[in-house]
Amino acid sequence: MLIDPSKESRDEHRATLATLGYKDVVEAQNGQDALSRVATDAPDMLVVENDMPGMTGLAFVETYHQRGGAAPILLVDGSADH
Hints:
Elements: E1 2-3, H1 7-19, E2 27-28, H2 31-41, E3 46-49, H3 57-66, E4 73-76
Parallel strand pairs: 1-2, 1-3, 3-4
């Protein structure tokens, strides 16, 4: 699952994941959207942008773990790209 408010960033991450063999990638625009989808989508891995409106990536990770989520997480910070 890709969690990032930027469509451009999600597209870049999706392309990278495709080269690694990940074809079925679910996307979410923010932490709240992702939290509502992780239970039903059961992702194998999460790529989470830290700088998101409403709920930071770190806050998402904490909430995800509190709710029993156990998939590996890659927390990224795209603000360095600007």
